[in-house]
């Protein structure tokens, strides 16, 4: 999977196009398609990427594909402009500090006198001023300054119009982000909460940037309230061997900058929450810990990695989100396991107010992709340890990625299906599992045969997921496909009575 590379070294099948250009005026990634789309059909395949690299002398032959160099060359087509550019603010994104407050972050190449957000609320002239702090990291020679400003409680559903930067160093464009709804409520009686969810995105190779464009375009028709990214974010390196010592395959930090600029049209205007995956491990998770802020207890330093915390939770309207880390110890007795128990107990006690519980991790509990299948089925370690918590605390849905596919798994307990429906689950006694790891990396294309009974729908197609929460009893999930721009699967979870 690539953000400039291929995940696990696997490319998708060449028999069909990996993507079709859907175009987005002003989004700014068309140059890549124009350069690599050798047959001019607005579709990019692995063969075209390799042919382009061969013809430009980037690789000598197909047996020695230098994906890092290919990505570096392709990054030149990022609107013909650098990502980091002196004191100019770039890579603007918003996130949740807690259930009510927003945090704004951005990057400059060099330091500025101040880290300033100028903002207005609900249409008022933007004349309120806040200043924040800066930090940096130096993994693999990255040079830059990361700015962060915590906004005060601006009020539920408040629309915050803002720009970031510094009077001397320069300002960003204006963006508008909406503060969270009141805990236990939607934004209004008529409209559902709409939340995008996915994992395994990357940038240029092949289609992370196109999925960003797809989400952006879809959000113009059905506005998003929140984005949740369940790990494997930028793919600044795609190799997982040698990670412990970061010698053989160190991540390329400039790829993080490409990714952050790629998602800016989304993340600057919609709160964007990111969990951790295995491809964030490099340099003691330095890039991930520096570039994101999440609700407590998340946080820590790569210099004291044993004490860092990679799990967190928050309430967003009618949904409680529990974000675990599948990359850190979660066994009974571990620090994370005890936190999960405490968090889920508190969520259940508050279910009369916040009725839905979404549990999120990077890796699947069940997936019938042949790769890593022994780790993603009944009897596997992750399933044996964590599934009892999901059942005990009546979690509604488990969202994950890691496998580069879409797969819906029926409500299941220890491999036994407890409710098999194609369109609507009514009062299920176990969560629906959704593997939505198809947000831009090359697809996995081989499935376990025969088809496991618990696997409801499985697709090797690129796209993302989104779900709508209508009330305390009705939740609707869709998996959106990039090539058709339509849902390739959808289902309801309904409850007979509100908790």
Would you kindly provide a written description of the structure presented here, covering whatever features stand out?
Mean pLDDT is 87; it is low at 1-30 and 241-248. 18% of the residues lie in helices and 25% in strands. It has 9 helices and 25 strands. The longest helix is centred in the C-terminal third of the chain and has 15 residues, at 335-349. The protein is globular. With 499 residues, it is of the alpha+beta class. A hairpin with a 6-residue loop joins strand 3 and strand 4. The strands form 5 sheets. A 7-stranded mixed sheet has the order 12-11-10-23-24-25-20, with helices on one face. Strands 13-14-15-16-21-17-22 form a 7-stranded mixed sheet, with helices on one face.
Question: Could you describe the largest sheet, including whether it forms a barrel?
Answer: 7 strands, mixed
Pick out the low-confidence regions: 1-30, 241-248
What spatial form do the alpha-carbon principal axes imply?
A: globular
Number of strands: 25
Task: Report helical residue fraction.
Answer: 10-25%
Range of strand content: 15-25%
Head-to-tail CA distance between termini: 41 Å
Task: Let me know the average pLDDT.
Answer: 87
User: Could you tell me the radius of gyration in angstroms?
Assistant: 22 Å
Secondary structure tally, helices: 9
SS-derived structural category: alpha+beta
* Widest β-sheet, arrangement of strands: 12-11-10-23-24-25-20
């Amino acid at each position: 999977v690539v953000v400039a590379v291929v995940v696990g070294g696997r490319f998708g099948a060449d028999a069909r196009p990996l993507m079709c250009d859907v175009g987005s005026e002003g989004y700014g990634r068309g140059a890549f398609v124009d350069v690599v789309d050798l047959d001019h059909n607005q579709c990019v395949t692995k063969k075209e990427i390799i042919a382009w690299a061969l013809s430009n002398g980037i690789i000598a032959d197909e047996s020695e594909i230098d994906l890092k160099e290919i990505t570096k060359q392709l990054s030149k087509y990022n609107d013909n402009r650098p990502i980091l550019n002196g004191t100019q603010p770039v890579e603007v994104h918003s996130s949740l500090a807690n259930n009510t407050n927003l945090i704004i972050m951005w990057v400059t190449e060099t330091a500025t006198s101040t880290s300033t957000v100028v903002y207005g609320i609900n249409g008022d002239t933007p004349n309120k001023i806040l200043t924040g702090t800066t930090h940096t990291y130096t993994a693999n020679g990255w040079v830059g300054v990361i700015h962060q400003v915590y906004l005060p409680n601006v009020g539920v559903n408040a629309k915050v119009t803002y720009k970031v930067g510094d009077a001397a160093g320069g300002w960003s464009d204006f963006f508008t982000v909406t503060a969270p709804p009141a805990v236990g409520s939607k934004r209004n009686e008529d409209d559902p909460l709409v939340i995008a969810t996915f994992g395994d995105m990357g940038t240029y190779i092949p289609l992370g940037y196109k999925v960003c464009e797809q989400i952006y375009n879809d959000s113009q028709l059905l506005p998003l309230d929140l984005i949740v990214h369940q790990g494997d974010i930028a793919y600044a390196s795609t190799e997982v061997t040698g990670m412990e010592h970061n010698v053989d395959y160190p991540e390329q930090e400039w790829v993080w900058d490409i990714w952050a600029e790629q998602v800016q049209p989304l993340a600057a205007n919609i709160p964007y929450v990111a969990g951790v995956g295995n491809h964030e491990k490099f340099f003691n998770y330095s890039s991930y810990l520096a570039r994101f802020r999440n609700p407590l207890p998340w946080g820590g330093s790569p210099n004291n990695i044993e004490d860092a915390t990679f799990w967190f939770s928050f309430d967003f309207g009618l949904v409680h989100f529990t974000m675990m880390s599948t990359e850190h110890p979660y066994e009974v007795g571990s620090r994370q396991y005890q936190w999960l128990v405490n968090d889920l107990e508190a969520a259940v006690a508050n279910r009369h107010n916040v009725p839905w519980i979404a549990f999120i991790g990077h890796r699947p509990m069940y997936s019938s992709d042949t790769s890593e299948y022994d780790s993603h089925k009944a009897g596997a370690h992750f399933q044996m340890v964590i599934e009892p918590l999901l059942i005990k605390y009546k979690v509604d849905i488990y969202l994950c990625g890691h496998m580069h596919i879409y797969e819906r798994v029926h409500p299941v307990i220890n491999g036994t299906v407890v409710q098999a429906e194609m369109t609507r689950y009514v009062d299920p006694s176990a969560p629906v599992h959704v593997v939505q790891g198809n947000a831009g990396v090359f697809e996995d294309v081989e499935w376990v045969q025969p088809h496991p009974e618990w696997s409801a729908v499985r697709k090797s197609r690129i796209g993302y997921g989104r779900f709508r929460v209508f009330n305390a009893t009705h939740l609707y999930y869709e998996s959106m496909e990039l090539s058709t721009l339509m849902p390739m699967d959808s289902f309801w979870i309904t409850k007979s009575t509100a908790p």
